[in-house]
Every structure is written in structure tokens, then in C-alpha cells.
Request: fold
Amino acid sequence: MMSYVRDTFGEANRQSRLKVGLAIIYTPKEQVAETAARLRVDLALAQQMDVPVLIQVDTENWLPESLTNWFDPSKPGYDPSKVNDVEWTGWTPDTAVKLCWRNWGTVIRVGPHPNLLSPRFQAWEKSIYTALAPVVVEWLNQLPAQKRGLFVGWKCGWETTPNSQYAYFKDGNSYLACSDNPKWIEADKQLIGYNAAHTGGFQTSGVLDYQHSYDVFMKIIGAHLSYLAKTARSLGLPREKIFVHTIAQGVDRFNMDSQFNADSNPSPSFYGKPTTSLRDNPSFMRCLAKARAELGTTGYGIGEFVFGAKDYDTWHRWFTEKLAADPDLIFAALYNYDTMRGKTEIERAMLSAMKQNQ
Reply:
């Protein structure tokens, strides 16, 4: 992929203020030392090939099975007290979940949703960041001044949204002993988040639902991402290079609670029409202006986006009018390597936009 970026866009990258790079997701699980070694090699290669990189370290979606094993004595890491490190469907440990499901085009069975605010879970996250962030800091500090732009940033979270990447269904724990999965019926979902809400002191009784308790979920997201951003910054990463990744909201206080903090910039996902961008979300832009004045925010990113369009005109307009023309937008992470690679019209649209922005 770095060879592709270098060979297709390298010359344009040297001339244009609009550049093409690579967004890389690392999922360490138990292979932390191996991941750190791979990261070191990747960064050296990025420097050698002059390819800008955006680094994302996953501590949310793919976890060591042992990390949340509160229920199975036959498997590694078993500890009944880890019931506090997973999510619940109510206010007591007897409602703890043992597994969840994820719909990424196909339904995937995954482990229990972690309690994002559990001290033990956060300590594990910190251990991952402590192993990997210094590799980036060391590399960044040795870069010549003219090459420091190769580091686009460090992205915390992965579209963090309780009940989205981990869905739990009624009687979900009963599926643990069989290979069947529940039918994906929205009405059968049971909301989780009670444990994090209690841990964070956001709500300790009553019912959690989107109609009456949406602000609680936003505060959970914000507390989790703030912790990750603060940890990344404490390890030496520059504040302006730290981004948090969730979903933009349409209500100011929800945006402020979930993705604006003193240690990072926001970078929510954008899956809108190619005639629009996050700049067309008035609430998000109001919060960005407020955060610039009060928190030191320097801009925003788009944590992930993609369009179904494949024609030159659609992409060229977006690259020029929504990306290059936005003074606050620092990066936009186009998801799936083959969205652009090998798509001649999209490549041509980007090269033309780059030429217009020399």
C-alpha cells in the first residue's frame, strides 16, 4: 500500500498542500511487542517512501479473550471479579453479558462489550498505549523538520458508540453454549451501558434508553475518549496530532460531551452524501468554534468515510470543495484500501485536486 501511494501520488505529494497517505489500524490483542516492532518498521518505511501516515491503535473492538473472561474457568484469564470490566443490561452484576454481536456487512460473534470506564480495563488500554505511543514519538522526534508532516496523527477510539460495535440481544448469554446466533432484529436488542454509567457516576438507577438517557451514552463516550487522549498526550504525542473517533451528533451538548476535550481534536465518521461534509453539521461546527476558543482545539478530522460513487466529477468536487477548501479539516480517512486503489477515475480526481492546490 505504501508503494501504491508513493508510485501513484508521490510526485504530487511533493508539490501539493493536499496529500495522500495511509491510515493504519493496529490491533495488538496479546501481541503487543510484535505490534510495536511492526509499527517501528512501518514508520521507517513511511519515512523512506515519503508516505504520510495516520496511526490508530485499537483497544475497543478486538480484545484479548482473557481480558473480559469473568465466566469461563476453562479459558485463560478467568476471574469472576472481571464481571466489573464488562457491560451489564441492568444495574447489578447478575445482568453482565458474556458475548455480543457485530454487524460489519456480516454478523460476527464477539466477546462481551467492555466497561469502557472500568479502572482495570483502562489500565490495560494504558499498557497498550505505553508500548506503542513512544515508538511514534521517537520516530517523530528524529524526523527532519521538512518531513514532520509525514505524521498525520494518532487516532483514539474506533467510532466509539455503545450498543453499535457490540450489540446484545435478549437472552444473549444463552447462545454461549451453541454456534447459533440470534436474528438481527432491532426490537430484540437490549441496551447495555449500565456498568459504565454507574462507574462514571452518570446514572445509577432507572432505565437507560435513547429517548431519556442519550446524554448518559454521550458522557460515557466522552469520558472514555478523554482518557485515551490524555494518556496519548502524557506519553509525548503532540496535542494537535491526537484525534478522537466517534460519531457527530446534531445537538451541541451531545457533541461537546462525546468528542471535545482538552487533549485532542475530534474526528467523527462521515457517511453522508458526497455533496456534503461534516462542515454542513451546524452543531458540530459551533462546538468546534467553542473548542478552539476554550480547549485549544486546532481543527478536526474525518475518522472514516466512503461514498458509493465511482465517477470523476463527484469525487473531484468533494476533494476540492469539501476537503481542500475546508480550512478546519486536517484529514479525511477513506476506508477500505480498494476504494481508491485501482479506481482510475477516483485516482484521476485526486491528482487533479492536488494539482489545483499546489
Remarks:
- The chain has one domain: 2-72+116-161+216-356.
- The chain has a mean pLDDT of 97.
- Strands lie at 22-26, 53-57, 100-103, 107-110, 151-156, 242-244, 265-266, 300-305, 329-334.
- The longest helix spans residues 210-234.
